[in-house]
Every structure is written in structure tokens, then in C-alpha cells.
Amino acid sequence: MFKTNNPNTWCAGCPDFMIKAALERAMTALIKEEGWKKEDLVLVTDIGCSSKIYDYLDLSAFDGLHGRAIPAAIGINLGNPKMKVIVCAGDGGTYNEGMEHFVQACRYNPDITLLVFNNQVFSLTIGQATATTEEGFIEKTHPDGVQEKPLNPVTLALESGASFVARVSALELIHMEEVFKKAIKHKGFSFIDILQPCIVFHNTSDYLKKNTIKIEPSNLEEAKKEAAKWSYDTQGQIAIGVFYEERKKNMEEKYLKK
Ligand SMILES: Cc1ncc(C[n+]2csc(CCOP(=O)(O)OP(=O)(O)O)c2C)c(N)n1
After folding, report:
1. Is 93 in a helix, a strand, or coil?
2. Domain range for 233
3. Residue whose CA is closest, atom 19 of ligand 1?
């Protein structure tokens, strides 16, 4: 239903293929189960490997600037609140260049879904560290290793008031599909941090395969505790699942009152 004829330039074996497959399955299921039309869905992309998905999905779409996909998505949502707006962006675009938009989206609660392809590096520009790269990681711009601790975007989203916060592994297709469906149906800002190994510049595949654990926290405090247990490094178990979901007034309901 979403196939295009554009050549695909993702690396062979990149987990981005899994994310795309899970998103296609989720959208197909929602169209069937919810009576939505394909035309109700809009894709908004950023810049980077993640955002090449713009070329690979046959959907109404807008390709933004690096870090600026969220405000474009909010504009589309407020212009036509019936549209289901799905943003695909990288961790560099979201947690570095576009950090302010991410935090404000958590606060304002626009009815959009944000899928962050978090490979913990700027992949398309060949592997520089982002805000979620682990301390000590060596790449060309940090020959002695990254000196900072990584940001925890799940904790940040929970602390910033996001109404739907989840984390998934790009290596677990069916779980991704289930969480994507819940996120797209959520009537507010739904954020999913997708742990996506970059098989060339930051390959966490073996660690991720062995160390995920599915969780279902029952309240915000528990969600914050679960989020704090793993620090975007290579130690311990990684909680995945929907950390938190709450129906709050979204941006349209707050600002487009008739
Ligand atoms: C406004 C702007 N700034 C910088 C760039 C250069 N650039 C292209 S891809 C890229 C890295 C993207 O990294 P990330 O957002 O993490 O996505 P990934 O490639 O890892 O999926 C950068 C910095 C750009 N194209 N536009």
C-alpha cells in the first residue's frame, strides 16, 4: 500500500528497514481497524538516514530542515486537525539541533507522533557523537572519547509533561508495530525513542538483542524510576514498552476552541 519506486540507499542490513516495515504494518492495521484512509496520514521527515524514509513511503509528506520537523508537523496538525501526523527524525535532529522543539512539544501536547530513530550518532554525516552517545565513545571529532554523559530522552520527555512516552528496539518488529499503533491512535503528543543500531558507525546490535526487558509501569513515578535504570550506555537491561500514557488536553483543544 505504501510502496514507492525510489531506489533505497540505506545500508544493506540497516535496522531502519525494520522500523519502516513496522510503521507500514501499523498504518495498514489502523486503516483496516479504525476505518481511516491512507489520505488521513501525513509523514513529516527531518534530515539524515532516518528521514530518507520520505522517499520510501507513498504518503502525503513534508521533508523539513535538520531539527525542524516538529514545528512543521505542528503546523500541519493545527491547519487540519483531522490528519494523523507522523514525524520520523534522527537523534541528532531531535536531541541536538531540534532539542527546544522536542521539549516544547512535550509541554504543548500537539496531536502528532514522533518516531526518533535513535542510533546514538549523526549517521548520514558518518558517525559524529550526538546527545545520546555514551561517554568514552571514540569517533573522528572525539579522538579521546566523548567526555559527557548521554542524555536520557525518555526521562526528559516524562519530566517535560509528555502525554505518551515509549521506547522500543528496532530489532523487535512485532513489539514496534504494537507500540506504533498505540502511539498513532493517542490523541496528543506521542513520543517513541527507537533504539536503532547503526551497523556502520554505532553497532549495538548484540547488546540490544540480549538485553531488552518489556515493562508496563502503572504510574508516572514508576515510569520515571524505570526510565532512570538505563543510561544509554552498554550496561544492564534496557526497559522497552509504553512507559506512560495519559489523555490530556492537546494543543488543538487548548488553542483552536470554537
Ligand atoms: C540544517 C542542516 N544542518 C546540517 C545538515 C547536515 N547533515 C545532514 S545529515 C546530518 C546528520 C543527521 O543525523 P541524525 O539526525 O542523527 O540522523 P541519522 O542520519 O543518524 O538518521 C547532518 C548534520 C543539514 N543537511 N541541514
Report:
1. helix
2. 19-245
3. 48
Q: How confident is the model at residue 257 (pLDDT cuts 50, 70, 90)?
A: confident
Q: Which secondary structure element, helix H or strand E, spans residue 190, and what is its range?
A: strand 190-195
Is residue 87 within 8 Å of 117, Cβ to Cβ? no
Average pLDDT, the chain: 98
253 lies in some domain: no
**Distance between CA atoms of residues 255 and 252, nearest Å:** 5
Q: How far is the CA of 46 from the centre of ligand 1 (A)?
A: 8
Domain count, the chain: 1
Which pTM was predicted?
0.98
Whose C-alpha lies nearest to ligand 1, atom 13? 122
**Category of 191 on φ-ψ map: left (φ > 0), alpha (ψ -120 to 50) or beta:** beta
Per-residue cell: 96: 541536538
The b/e string for 60-78 (b: 16+ C-beta within 10 A; e otherwise) is ebbbbebbbbbbbbbebbb
Residue 255 lies in a domain: no
Residue ranges lining ligand 1, Cβ < 6 Å: 47-50, 65-66, 90-93, 117, 119, 122-125, 130
Determine phi and psi for 46, rounding to 5 degrees: -110, -130
Provide the CATH number for the domain around residue 131.
3.40.50.970
